[in-house]
Amino acid sequence: MSSNSGIQIPSRLPLLCTHDGVLLPGSTMRVSVDTARNMQLVKSRLLKGTSLKSTIIGVIPNTRDPEHDSDELPSLHSIGTAGLAVQVVGSNWPKPHYTLLITGLCRFRVSQLLRERPFPVAEVEQLDKLEQYTEGDPADGELGELSQRFYQAAVQLVGMLDMSVPVVAKLRRLLDSLPKETLPDVLAAMIRTSNKEKLQVLDAVDLEERFKKALPLLTRQIEGLKLLQKTRKLRPDDDKRVLSIRKGGVFPGRQFSLDEEAEDEDSDDTALLERKVKAAAMPEAALRVCLKELRRLKKMPQSMPEYALTRNYLEMMVELPWSKSTTDCLDIRAARVLLDNDHYAMEKLKRRVLEYLAVRQLKSTLKGPILCFVGPPGVGKTSVGRSIARTLGREFHRIALGGVCDQSDIRGHRRTYVGSMPGRIINGLKTVGVNNPVFLLDEVDKLGKSLQGDPAAALLEVLDPEQNHSFTDHYLNVPFDLSQVLFIATANTTASIPPALLDRMEVLQVPGYTQEEKVEIAHRHLIPHQLEQHGLTPQQLQIPQDTTLEIISKYTREAGVRSLERKIGAVCRAVAVKVAEGQKVTRSEAPTEQHAEQNTESKVEDSGIAAPPEMPIVIDHIALKDILGPPLFEMEVSERLTLPGVAIGLAWTPMGGEIMFVEASRMEGEGQLTLTGQLGDVMKESAHLAISWLRSNAKTYLLNDGSADLLEGTDIHLHFPAGAVTKDGPSAGVTIVTCLASLLSGRLVRSDVAMTGEITLRGLVLPVGGIKDKVLAAHRANLKRIIIPKRNEKDLEEIPANVRADLDFVLAGTLDEVLNAAFDGGFPSAVNHPQVLSKL
Ligand code: ADP
């Protein structure tokens, strides 16, 4: 049935092979293009072509899924539909592909395949006419009767649909104006038919046969609709949904809304979501947004990328604990016991935490301050936070803020971004599943800043009790009440916490531990914990106090106990190997040499009998050296101080206190001062102050060998070792003066003295911070005399009595007192009591 007149399709057509869906003449279909050949066709024909003819392509249905075999052209269905590509949309997500909107024009038969690459092109024979059918032509005989019946059935079907929908009304009008011959194709494409049935309609080249094939499909659809209407009569609202038509043109292509199967799946899914939304007990505003999004979701085809986004959003919303909370079980006495059991020492911190909890017990709606624990690493800040959650019976969640430099980490991304997510606060709430957990904001001092905004500013809103009842995450875009969340922050130093953030928090200092405290912590907590972790029992491994002390002094140098815990872990591992080996060794076997050496006590006891495996392994001095290697830290203090021009200062770092050597040397030159060791501006100024004070007082202290100026013909170099670490702060002033005084006088500084203090040009010593940490560091380093500013006397109260008893504190108000205390036998001066003179 070739056409002799009317519109002609080209006799050579590029072929688009589809394996999903059948395009029928008169209908429009969306085709996803992702195979190599089809992509080529789109790129070189559709996108490059300029004439209308170049947009006509042949669509061959029912091609085997080409994914399996992309090289060879699969066998082609002989009949296809010539179609007009009316729209091409390209996308790179999730992989490069195009989506074509094609309107079917007429059938064709492939007469000869001309080429296969880069896309197939075939010589084709047009099977349908494209011009208007002349009236009356097919209206007689059996065909006329068939077409009449088909037309009436179509009218009946459209009559059953909701005429208020514009597309249905338009379809109704079209039914009258369309030639009846086109109806089987148009309707078969619209109603619910399988691909196989559509293919049968396509293959029915003869018009009569086509009517015969399509009519039962139409009747089936009408019957199905009748049944549906009957069953849903009781729920008139649903009718509209069943009969609603997807908007999308006169020929809605692949699916008419009557295609119930997919719709049902969809609606099941969304109905479930809707139920969850209603059960989530969210506040009014959030519920409204959710319902709006749900409505949008229902109208969206699943293939749309936005569908997944909206779904994820709704899933997130229903999972949030809008009104789920735990009840606090606060008992101050129990809390005290629990805190004491979990943590040794830290009295000040525990007292403040208990106060805080007590106030909460009396007034549950407390908009209290946010506690911020500040101290060196490993002093138990995080674990106190965890204990607080435990005493309150609340969920605990830790949010690590170190290195966070994007404010969307806190407040989420807007949903318009691909891959957008809520921030860590909302994510944390979702994880814990209740709206009143304890959130530990770890390392707030390590928040960064970048082009993506300032996360500290975003945290302000989270932490401010006046604002956080309506915290709005960008992703959620509706307020979430954070006022029930208990925030605790930790930091190593307050210096790098932005002032606005610091202002909202109550800082609790957690200083480092003394050696004795560390020994206690090790024996009460760390050793039992490590034994358990390694599957050992106290009957298998014993670490005496002396050994612990040795680990602390020779293998660790820290304010906290983290590296001590690691070293104990290393000992446990080594013993675990021995114990595991011992279990295999038969009892009669003699103990290994090392075993015997370590286990001197048991050797005495067992008097010649092989050590039974239950004998504890006692870690003594030798065993420790075996396991941990030679000591990492030796006391180098006395060695360093064998030359003039060296003094020991005390420094404070976020890691705790440290002792710091200051070295000076002089050489011939023009009176220049060189400073090395990565010093900050304040430290450089201290050095200049020290030199100036010494120059002006050179005569008093007999430093200038008769020359008028101290620096005449001399260069001085001051160095602060650990050159890779940046140092700053005024507290090294007294150390620099002492070091230079030693260099210039040629006398040695006492090797057991350390000092700290800021200086002024007139030789006064001003107070400095971090005294407790500094004193503990000096004690760790076995120093005996410590010079601190007089006005820091009050800070000595914080120092544990046993440490205080070991040390000799010199409280200095002037540099003269410092020098007298730093040198053996004092520092001689020509004038007695210069400070008294200056006061007169
Ligand atoms: P931080 O958060 O201050 O860096 P952590 O809380 O992580 O330190 O503590 C490190 C380890 O030290 C934990 O195992 C903790 O139990 C232990 N620890 C620290 N201080 C104490 C203490 N006073 N009593 C008992 N254990 C402690």
Q: Would you summarize the structure shown here?
A:
The chain has 840 residues and is α/β, with parallel strands linked by helices.
DSSP summary, beta strand count: 24
> Can you count the helices?
30
Mean pLDDT: 81
Helix content: 40-55%
Descriptive notes:
The protein is 41% helix and 16% strand. The chain is an alpha/beta fold. The strands form 7 sheets. A 5-stranded mixed barrel has the order 1-3-4-5-6. A hairpin with a 5-residue loop joins strand 4 and strand 5. Helix 2 (141-160) runs antiparallel to helix 3, helix 9 runs antiparallel to helix 10 and helix 11 (332-342) runs antiparallel to helix 13 (381-392). Residues 1-5, 236-263, 585-612 and 833-840 have low confidence and may be disordered. Adenosine-5'-diphosphate binds at residues 343-346, 377-383, 490, 521, 525, 560-562, 565.
List the helices and strands and how they pair.
Layout (H helix, E strand, L loop, with lengths): L11 E6 L10 E6 L2 H11 L9 E5 L18 E13 L5 E19 L5 E6 L14 H20 L5 H12 L5 H8 L4 H9 L3 H25 L4 H8 L16 H20 L4 H16 L5 H15 L12 H11 L4 H16 L7 E5 L6 H12 L3 E5 L7 H4 L12 H9 L5 E5 L12 H9 L7 E2 L6 E2 L5 E6 L7 H5 L1 E5 L5 H19 L7 E2 L2 H11 L6 H23 L8 H6 L1 H7 L10 E2 L2 H8 L8 H4 L5 E8 L2 E13 L4 E4 L4 H16 L17 E6 L13 H13 L7 E3 L2 E2 L5 E2 L4 H10 L4 E5 L11 H6 L1 E5 L2 H8 L11 H6 L1
Helix pairs in contact: 2-3, 2-6, 4-5, 4-6, 5-6, 8-9, 8-10, 9-10, 11-12, 11-13, 18-19, 18-20, 25-26, 26-29
